[in-house]
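Dear Dr. V.,

Thank you for agreeing to look over these. As mentioned in my earlier message, I'm a first-year student in the group and I'm still getting used to reading structure tokens, so any feedback on how I've presented them would be very welcome. I ran two proteins. I've put each sequence directly above its structure. The first is here:
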Amino acid sequence: MERDDRQDTPLLSEDREIDPDAAFGGKLARNELEARLLSKLDTRMSILVLIYILNYIDRNNASAARLRGFERDLNLSGTQFSSVLSILYVGYCLMQIPSNTLLVYLGRPSRFLPCCMMAWGVLSLSTGRSFVGVMYTRFFIGFTEAAFFPGAWFLISKWYKRRELSQRMALLSCGSLISNAFGSLIASGILDSMEDVGGYASWRWLFFIEGGLTVVVAFISLFILPDFPETEMTWLSPAEQALAQRRMVEDAGMNEDLYPKRGSTSRLLMALSDWKVWWLALTLTSIVISLSFNAYFPSLAATLGYGRTLTLLAPPWFFATFVGFGVSRHSDRSEERFWHVVAPLLVGILGFLLAMSTMNPIARYISLFLMAQSYAGFIVYLSWASGTIRSSQKRAVALALINMVSSFGNIGGSYIWPSAWGPSYSASFSICIFASALGILLCFLFRQHLALLNAEAERKEAEMDEPKGYRYLL
């Protein structure tokens, strides 16, 4: 239930009050209230990690199924398997902006996101029996999955301040890394034990079980996920809800309730006309292409020459999860973004070079660890991108647009790992190195631009003798 009159809360009674902590009983009382608020938020938001794990498992289970007769049973040939992977991102791209626009219009992520999750779970467990059937199913899985990541990204950015974002985005994004670790173990267990059970191939059971689990978790999340701070919620006290809104006003350096609400078309035009949004999208696309090895990790692990390929996948992703969380936590504490993005990407390049230079199984397995940890740069970049878009009205569409454009990197990345380039995959690694280098260059130029904006803001404040205002994180 939306509040009709927000002026009765301590948050908005006076946006420029001398002591912003006074409405909450002083600084000490506010800190205690904020700690309780964040504890409640973190508890409820944690369900997003589980959803993201299942999101990635349902998206990537075709790669695991490929090792147990998926291509043979569906009579796939040539680039058809690559098309099966990439068609998901066609639907994913088409629905990015409409889904986030609809999310803002409805104002109920606690209902919208779980319903979309139920839809892709049902589609996953009913994966088709032919190439055409699988293509249709995968397209609509992407169509419904499109709502989750940009929606969750926007939901987190509505509740957490910029210096809190990277750590929370790390927890969310670690869901994809954990899914690669646990997903491979789960897939290994199902594929090893479910062959011909009930007359179905084990790879079909993989889709049945993982899709069914998604539907169950989606139903549970209906009762856990929060809505936006402006929506009245029974699990928050009036003071906690007022503080939740106040925090975001202070972090953005402006009160959006004092400005007219914009329609979906106006928000879209705001995002489309901002060159920074396109720059962020291009940079993320480059990073996504460099991470395209993810979908082909089972195939890369198979080049090591060991039988239990899926089991070998878990340790690199556990390592990546640890690195991703550690780097993101340090990024928040130091309030620095650029080097926390670039350093993991540089280590990832070392992994690509190592894999290109040898076919030694031990060296190649080490390279998988180096490649996987580059996801830490991707995680911090998401927080950096979100934090550079101050207006939440614009941010909803901008984040969807950035994610949509970057999804074309997933489509292109699906075609740079053909079996014909194996087992060395030198050409594939070369493309990833170029994409990483381009992403690093674009990050550097963007950082320089933000530094100039910060210097200009500082100069104006000095001239006007004003207190320090909003600064971009570099």
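The second protein is here, in the same arrangement:
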Amino acid sequence: MFKKFTLVFLFIFLGGECYSVLAQTGLESQHLADHKPLMNEVWKTFDTMLYKVNKKNGKTIYTPFFPSKLAKMDGMKVELQGYMVPLKTGLRHNRFLLSVLPVLQCMFCGQNGIPPMVEITLANNDKIWLKENPITLKGYVKLNEKDRTRVEIFIQDASIVK
């Protein structure tokens, strides 16, 4: 058991290091060419979300603001393609983030800051295997203005498009 765990750990650890070395040896342009963002009209609309900044009792409060085009999407069924970003450890997930960029590509590097992400909840408590390749799903948009422990845009009752 110990040897198996150690080998898996070393594989993951060394795999991460190899990725970093590749990025530092000038191959990052190839990596970026292989992983183009999956922006479409739905993602572009999600990316219009802004924050209102207020002060309350000396603290800065950021409140999501949904422009009218985005607000009209609340409750709408959409189809969206993206990369899975797990919220918890494990290989099978019912709830996860979906991003226009793969998790191995630095989310905070590159152009124009942090890419848009949405929280996905699959219908019927279904779970899917964590994938490195993009997935396509359909579900209903839910805009979140209140729950500060979760993201601002959800896709609920989602199903995978085959």
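From my reading of the second output: The chain has two domains: 1-33, 35-160. The radius of gyration is 18 Å. Does that match how you would interpret it?

Kind regards,
E.
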